[in-house]
Amino acid sequence: MSQIPLVLYQGAVLGAIYALMALGFTLIYGSLRFLNLSLGSLFTLGAYVAWVVSAGIGLPPLVGLVVAFVLVGIVGAGIHEVAVRPLVGRPGWEIATIISTLAVGIVIQQLIQIVWGPRNQGMPDLMSGSARVGPVLVVQYQRVAVVVVAVAVMAALWWLLTRTRHGLAIRAVAQNRDAALLGGVSANRIFLLVMALGSGLAAVSGVLLSTVMVSLNPTVGLAYALRGLVVTLFGGLGSITGTLWAAFIIGLFESFVAVYFGEGWKLPALFVFLIVVLVVRPSGLAGVSAEERT
Amino acid sequence: MSAEAGPVLAVDGLRAGYGETEVLHGVSLRVGPGETLVLLGPNGHGKTTLLRTVSGLVRARAGEVALAGRPLRGLPPDRIAALGLIQIPQGDLLYGEMTVQENLLMGAYLPTAWADREARLERVHAIFPRLRERARQQARTLSGGERRMLAIGRGLMADATLLMVDEPSLGLAPVVIDELYDRIAEIKASGLPILLVEESARRVGAIADRIALLENGEIVREGPPSELLNDPALTATYLGIA
Questions:
Q1: Which segments of B87-173 does DSSP mark as H helices, in order?
Q2: B123 pairs with which residues across the strands?
Q3: Model pTM score
């Protein structure tokens, strides 16, 4: 029982990072109805961009975070034009785009390795220092800053999606494309925007995770893309609130497993968890069935 | 309609369909400034296909559509909507997981309408006070009549040159239909040209300036309501009374 504050603390940090990653998947799935598997590499790319800006150029890590969001967002829009848009609507495009974005992701990962090398790099902290809270828990300010930044990004996203015309249009296109078209919304422009936004969120997630991880290397994205997918499926594909719940539940679950059973059990436990979820409630937390969704 | 002003909507020889099947076999019609044209026809004879082709959701195979003299054929639906051709679609096509307010705001998506959205919300709320009461509710929780009001209200948020309404009475209780037609009459009184589609002639007499009959993908008759609604052969078919 004494470990519970530790579980909650680590779970909140992981949940916040997973939420950003999974929101990228779920926004893109909600609009375009396909899984963008390049997000894993964009997660890594975001982390490297921020690392170059902060460790290389010497600017504050928060500047690196913004630069990563913008640059990777542009890369995501480019991926849409090159690897997604030409396929959309053709027979079998849902599978074709999964493969094409996975391929782009592999290319990006290799480019990262060619440019910055395969070795581990250290990401500068957002903040330093820590405070002891109670008998077992040492709270690092760094991790608190990660949660604060993640929550701020989610709040900004919420504002965008509920208060601005383009944000409303993102949700409108996801819910009823014909109605949105009749309302004057260019679905193609919204798809481009959503791909940029989802990619930017993956990048921010990567930056935040790399500041709490021990090191940064070109392959980190894969494991977190898998977690992002698990969260997205558990949340109910395309549902934003379901995704947020799922992210924090899975963050807590992982941290529980890590604290009580050891780090090595995290991924196996996560996939057992996913299998159970898919058997018991295949539509995920938000509970939209496949028929309703299409 | 005066000859100098020209029609707001001109459809000429329009052909369209789905896959191998052609549904519209060369439809022509005109809607003049301030005019309400009611298109009657049995189910499955191409009324909805006509509206969806005019608004660009279905691709035309032949023929021309022009809004205030500007050709529309080949333009995507979002461009056509931006030119002011606003369709209130069959089945309402609401954004179910968005609030009533957000649905209305999406009607004002285009920049000029968006800049004026607060005033337009007021105007739509004045026409449909129920939508103000339900503003924070999700659209999927509305009753059938409220859904239809929301669909029409969303259309009214846009800068419409012409309003196309697809079967406003579909699936509603008679008392709700009466109220809805009162509201449509108000919209007509504001001077907005309307192309309205219905299956039954029962309620359209009061608002129609002209009526056209669409059967098997062709306009078979056209004329003022006084003429068509007093024709016993037609009232048998379109009023469902023998």
A1: 100-107, 111-115, 117-127, 129-133, 144-156
A2: none
A3: 0.90
